[in-house]
Amino acid sequence: MQIYLVGGAVRDTLLGLKPHEHDWVVVGATPDELIKEGYQQVGKDFPVFLHPKTRDEYALARTERKAGKGYHGFEVFADPSVTLEEDLIRRDLTINAIAQNDDGELIDPYGGVKDLEARVLRHVSDAFVEDPLRVLRVARFAAKLAPFGFVLADETRTLMQEMVSSGEISDLTPERVWQEVAKALATAKPSIFFEVLDQVGAVEVLFPELYQLHDVTQPVKHHPEGDVWIHTMMVLDAAASLSDDLNVRFAALVHDLGKGITPKELWPKHHGHEKGGLSLVKAMANRYRLPKNTLNFALKVTEYHGIVHKVLDSEGQPHLKPQTCLKLLNLTKAFKQTTELSLLLTACEADARGRLGFENRPYPQRDFWLALAQAGSKVNNQEIIATGVQGAAISEAIERKRIELIQAYMDAYSAEKAEL
Hints:
This protein is α+β, with helices and mostly antiparallel strands. The chain contains 20 helices and eleven strands. About 40% of the residues are buried.
């Protein structure tokens, strides 16, 4: 029995990163031998075991043969006769096909170290085409490793394009697609994930709502970066720089989908795109079975990001009616806690910053909305009840008082701005 550290742990260590997990390959062993040593077998598809102490994953060296469609369409052969080189050749990228023995010696039969040094993402073998999920995985690695300057090898890009053209990418399960998207959204540069997928034709197949943002014009004054696709990618990266929250990042990705269905004769304006995008966000979320909280938050950002921006006009003066502001504050339960409101404001700030030349501009709307929430929360419910109102009239009186408090804050804010 020989045990080797493989995959991401080796790659990340060579890049100077701290590995998040350690995966191991066991050569020359049987399942019974590992079980006798206290390893716990997990899953039915692959011979994978958990270490009795560290709980790291140990997989028997195996080969795979394509026998059907999709991610699960493989026949797995695990046997003591399978060599380390045979196991490594079935992996996706050369940089993920490097092993390390107990002495720290690297086993690199497919040039992974060279590609690491050259910052190239290259497939290991032609077996790459057998698993359509690898199209998304490679795009995710491109996003994950973007800070290091990795680029996609031309031959790998061509192979990915052929895989998309074959149609098999459509056989991926919704859960697997969303899992890769969620991991990509967690990277420092998530736009790279979608840009790589776009280069190989996968965005059009998997995310048609995003694809139709290409070449859709916007007012140059507000969007000097160009079309809605470019703006969306910039907003996504701005969101990644502002927040680690998955919901914020996904909302940033889909907030302007409605612009993709604006009739061309109305361009570059997109009146009503906020509500127009709601059905598109739902369609994408339902297709990939997103968590309900992720969908619901994205819908709020999509519908209300315009209102959030417009709370202050170009001169920095309050611009909305207090009733309109109260609606959004109630929607985000801002008078009980400002967590959701703050996240929504972060997504909107990313929208404001995701424009060429606007990346570092202040976003005073954030503090203004939070101040409105604080002002509207200063309602004394007991005083209202003491006036003798009952039933539904109590909540109506509370609403009227909140509108009064919000208006008072706006007036005071305007007066202060005028003095300055």
